Write the structure tokens for this entry.
Amino acid sequence: MNNEKFVEVKNLRKVYDNGYEAIKNVSFSVKKGDLVCLLGPSGCGKTTILNMLAGLLFPTSGDILFDGKSVVKTEPKDRQIGYVFQNYALYPHMTVLQNVMFPLTVGKNKKSKEEAEKVARKYMDLTQITEFANQKPGSLSGGQQQRVAIARALVQEPKILLMDEPLSNLDARLRLKIREEIRALVKKVGITTLFVTHDQEEALSIGDEIILFNDGVIQQDDLGQNFYLEPNNYFVANFVGNPVIDNFKVEIKDGKVIGSDFELNLDDFDNSRFKREISDGQYILSVRPENIQPDENGHFEAEIKDVELIGRERILKFDHEAVQTRSLVNLEVPIKAGDKVALKMRLDRVFLFTPEGERVY
Ligand code: ATP
């Protein structure tokens, strides 16, 4: 058994019939028992990958291995996969118990009614839906229906659980609750899980690891905190983080980083963070709003246009450069809209990207 590469995707490509290449040479692996998030904007190819893993779509080229064995020629029903869809896909005319039992009452591994009910009840207990056993899905809330869908996916005791945006039909508060529950549940069952979402906060909170896609290409495959602290490129830095990162157009010339109204010395940057020698030219300097703070010795001045409260912190919004600049401060900082403040960037925390988005610092 290969626990490190329990799920392995090798050089996977998918070209749809209309010639569109949705997945471009993607490779990754998932450890046994891990919960990995496939993250990315709408249309980046997350569902296409999940459908290839499930066997609902055939890859154009490349390989998919479960536990070391290629499954691309294996029928979906023989892949030992549980799939939870965005819209739950429950049978409306069946009770909750009948829905959860259903996979065990069909196909060649079908169980006796008593045995099927016993297993179904075990997973209904785990997902806390036993009290709704005799109700129809239509009489349940979205969160309860989602639990039924999860119980039904787990009842065949699959090796791998695939979840496609399972929380998107729930309201904000319930999403937080159910995502904690899902994480606790899949960890308790110990099932290897791939969880698709377009929501970076959801991915950071639920995933052991995150694979971020854009345009059918992996942008970063990493632990959550590294997307924040060590983004691979401009796309990653801008996709992950709330409030979003601030970006400044700069020119680097003769050891200086020259912005529209500030000038920094490259010598003041942290030597250990340069990815390569930096030649003179145009770059983008990016800094997360918590690393740009009001400070008497600031790098530039700007007027606060608006202040937004988010929990215990406030976002100060400045009209600086063409794009908005933000600073994230705690509630105690005595500042209001209309104030002109000097802002200082933490140079050991900023990033530098080429105009093409390649990270150089
Ligand atoms: P979302 O979050 O919106 O569901 P996604 O990341 O899951 O998006 P996919 O559904 O995998 O994206 O689609 C990836 C790309 O492939 C999209 O540009 C989509 O328009 C295209 N696509 C999907 N299905 C087909 C198809 N059957 N034929 C042609 N193109 C398709």
